[in-house]
Amino acid sequence: MKSKINIWTAAFNIFNCLMLFISWFVVIAQAIANNGNTNGGFFYLVTWIGVILNTVSLYYAKQLNISIVGPVLGIIGSAISGLSMIFAFPSIVLLIIAVVFEFLQKPAKKASQVNDVIAPWYKVWWIWVVIAVSVLLSIAIIATASSHGSSSSSSDSDVSTTQGKTKSSQDTDSDTDSSSKSDSEAVLNKQYKVGETINYKGYKVTVNDIKYDDGDDIDTPKSGNKYVAINVTIQNDTGDKQDYNPFDFKLSADGNGTDLDETTGNDTYDNNTIDSGTLDEGSKVTGYLIGQANPNAKLKLEYQPNFFDNHTVDIDLN
């Protein structure tokens, strides 16, 4: 004997599968639109209706000695997605199998004689228990999903307000950075003289004095040149440790830059040169940078603050 309720339940399970498939796209769209928030209340309602229908189908299948595999799988498939849409895919698989069994309605194993009188489902108490539990769970789950939506909207509002304040703060920081950048560019573009201090982000360089030397019998400059001993002070007021290196400097003679790595044979200069090292915050070092050039040329000390940037700060030496 066939059960019409099994046929209708199977048809509803097909509809449930379709809704679960659509729910993926709806939930993803909601998550994108609402910053991760999803609701899906309608889909939860459909799944719990499925639980109730499959329960009724189970009752009639038992009474008519029909296999209960279909209704049982329908209950499980509907229930797990009713608890969370995370289980939508396994629910679809179980419901498809349930549909097959509910349409086939194979006789149950060890089937007994069919009852002549079958009580209507609404007179069976445990079905009402299932209905009551399904209604309560569906209300609780839908309400929870809705409250999450409200919380997310409230959070979004708070975030918008915070972002508005943050934007103002960022604008201030941007203005500060722009001002700092402008100050740094002004330092780089200024032409300095002996005795003036270059202050590049707290890294200070001052040319104190310049001396010329002819060398000795061993150390002799090229014809027409003299050794140029530049007395320099480097001070670190950046707030952190800073390295210094004589190769950050060059001696420019009429635009031709050369390294400051000469020795004059004069211990006053040679024994007090600036070597490479590290300065603590607030510390300074003073010494000589020695090169050679024609004293009649236009001499400049070129300081390169950034190794990765060829921009130099020039100090006129004559």
Write a concise synopsis of the structure shown:
The chain contains six helices and eleven strands. The chain has helices at 4-33, 41-63, 69-83, 88-104, 125-189, 267-270; strands spanning 192-193, 197-200, 203-213, 226-236, 242-244, 249-253, 256-259, 277-279, 284-293, 299-303, 313-316.
Give a structural overview.
This protein has 318 residues and is α+β, with helices and mostly antiparallel strands. It has helices at 4-33, 41-63, 69-83, 88-104, 125-189, 267-270, and strands at residues 192-193, 197-200, 203-213, 226-236, 242-244, 249-253, 256-259, 277-279, 284-293, 299-303, 313-316. Strands 1-11-10-6-7 form a five-stranded mixed beta sheet. α1 (4-33) runs antiparallel to α2 (41-63). The longest helix is centred in the middle third of the chain and has 65 residues, at 125-189. The protein starts with a helix and ends with a strand. Residues 152-169 have low confidence and may be disordered.
N-to-C terminal Cα separation, in Å?
Answer: 116 Å
Number of helices: 6
Helicity range of the residues? Answer: 40-55%
Uncertain ranges: 152-169
| Average pLDDT metric | 80
Rg value: 43 Å
Proportion of strand residues: 15-25%
Tell me the series of helices and strands, N- to C-terminal.
HHHHHEEEEEEEHEEEE
Number of strands: 11
Helix vs. strand class = alpha+beta
- The strand order across the widest sheet is 1-11-10-6-7
Global morphology? rod-shaped
Major beta sheet, specifics? Answer: 5 strands, mixed
